[in-house]
Amino acid sequence: MTSVPPTSPAVTAPPVEPRDLEEAARSALPAEVYDYIATGSGVEETLAANLAAWRELALAPRVLRDVSRVDVSTTVLGTPVSSPVQVAPTGYQRLVHPDGELGMATGAAHAGSLLALSTRATTTFDELAGAAGPWWLQLYVLRDRDLTATVVERAAAAGARALVLTVDTPYVAKKARSTAFPPAEVSPVLVPELRARGDEGVWQDPGVTFADLAWLAEVSGRLPLVVKGVVRGDDARACVDAGADAVWVSNHGGRQLDGAVPTARGLAEVRAALPDDVEVYVDGGIRNGRDVVRALALGATAAFVGRPAVWALATGGAAGVRDLLVTMRADLEETLALCGCASLADVTPDLLRSANPGDWAGAAGGSHSAQR
Ligand SMILES: Cc1cc2nc3c(=O)[nH]c(=O)nc-3n(C[C@H](O)[C@H](O)[C@H](O)COP(=O)(O)O)c2cc1C
């Protein structure tokens, strides 16, 4: 196995099991905060389906390969990272820990992972300045377009390496287990003007279309643009045609359209629709190294974790986030070795087998050629 990169302090904590982290966070957090994070929308069909879909893909390990060294380092839009596991944007992180996004950024940086910072962050760009490793800004296009442009310009000035435009949230869906959350006093403060101000200008603009991608590229000074929240091949293609540099397959962790396809399935469709040189990312139910291998085998360059990182922040602050990411990296290394893969380039679609007996005769399949 590769050793922990020099950026990472030695990890002394016992291995972190995301399932245990959630239980620990549930005990530590007020019930309404836990519910706000854990909940899906509707009756939580998609929340459950995201988790199940990864497990339906059985792994078919190769044997008699030299796996005495396993390297899981890679790059994401050109940025070197210690593993393909990165941190998804989640809003209002000071709800779960006083360090909020600062703790999340520090933990991600110490693990050598990339952070996507939410538009609904409860920490300012200035506070984050010294702590963060490489980070992207997740953007909602707000009804107040001038304010949107201000957020983008300040993110670019503060060092964001890319913009992640979230497109699955024209309206915030009703949550199954959480009605009045987040409370108004936990206000986003990324830039002071974002603070809840009693009008609809700070809400997501439901009128955003593909045509707005060019506008965003313009105001950001041509930062790379990632579109997050795509599950269809035709939409993915249209995003790239409209100027997106990469596509992020997501259904918002089952918090938006309930009944939406699980992301494992969306990933297969999106990957097939795009040229091999366009990076595709995925999130939703990624919980361990096996899920990451499945995502990579379906053609993802990186997999992002949402709730597990929040549970880690809630229970252990920055060190908890670092330990989660380092543990997931170690689990990925072990899984790769047991799959007969010495590097991410060895992870190809033929590692996967469907759980559906109707597909068994066809055995290995898949169309994309190799991992980036
Ligand atoms: C509490 C919470 C807040 C979130 N806030 C945002 C957000 O501000 N912007 C965004 O694009 N996605 C947001 N998401 C979605 C995550 O980025 C990600 O898509 C999702 O959590 C991945 O699924 P997972 O939690 O199963 O890993 C949020 C998710 C949660 C659980």
From TrEMBL:
GO cellular component entries: cytoplasm
Gene3D superfamilies registered for this protein in UniProt: Aldolase class I
EC number(s) from the headed UniProt entry: 1.1.3.46
Cofactor entry: FMN
InterPro entries according to UniProt: Aldolase_TIM, Alpha-hydoxy_acid_DH_FMN, FMN-dep_DH, FMN_HAD, FMN_hydac_DH_AS
Keyword Electron transport: no
Domain called FMN hydroxy acid dehydrogenase: residue spans: 10-357
Catalytic residues, chain numbering: 252 (proton acceptor)
GO terms assigned for molecular function: FMN binding; oxidoreductase activity
Keyword Flavoprotein set for record: yes
Residues reported in the UniProt entry to bind glyoxylate: 36, 140, 252, 255
CDD domains documented for this protein: alpha_hydroxyacid_oxid_FMN
Residue sites binding FMN per the record: 89-91, 118, 138, 166, 228, 250, 283-287, 306-307
Keywords, comma-separated and alphabetical: Flavoprotein, FMN, Oxidoreductase
Family: Belongs to the FMN-dependent alpha-hydroxy acid dehydrogenase family.
The protein's name in its UniProt record: 4-hydroxymandelate oxidase
Biological classification of the source: Bacteria, Bacillati, Actinomycetota, Actinomycetes, Propionibacteriales
